[in-house]
Amino acid sequence: MKNHDVVEFRTAQPSDTALLAALRKQAREETYRGIYTEEFFAQYDLLKNQAEFLRQIEHKIQQIYLIYVDEQLAGYFTFGKPQYWFPKTADPAGIYLNGLYILQLYWRQGIGLKVFRFVMDYCREQGIEKLYNNCNMHNVRAIAFYQAMGGSIIYQNGGHTDLAEDQLTFEYWVK
Asked: What pTM, to 2 d.p., does this model score?
């Protein structure tokens, strides 16, 4: 684990949408290559993703943050209401960490832990008792991280032909 002088979270602005869309593409390729199909990567539409980020920022649908490490872009994260599917066992008053993508160069350096602490602090400030996130059930590295953060698997949806559809939902008690 490297010790960085500065890890900073900057609120995404409308002018950041092209950067976010390109970052999402790179982070997904680094994270999911070998799990998702090549077709999944080939179909990625930068302009469509840029428009979706813009919609979320302008309408305050999600809180979106860029992660900078020593002034270098290292990833992004989003949280708010669920953006995908929401298991019936989850508390609808909870917050969803809808995306946590850190570029491979910055993996295993404590950055994800700092993101998690930031989101948990937000939950405490807002009086929110539970945090959730989904994770692909074949992403062993991410599963180990979420379990180390105290997450309990409350929902499993596996066995699909397309491994991208195999998902877990984690639940965390905000303390």
From this structure: 0.92
Phi, psi of 54 (to 5 degrees): -60, -45
Domain ranges, residue 17: 7-173
- For residue range 40-72, list pLDDT tens digits in order: 999 999 999 999 999 999 999 899 999 999 999
Please indicate, yes or no, if residue 108 is contained in any of the structural domains: yes
CATH number reported for the structural domain that contains residue 121 in this entry: 3.40.630.30
Tokens of 137: 């059930």
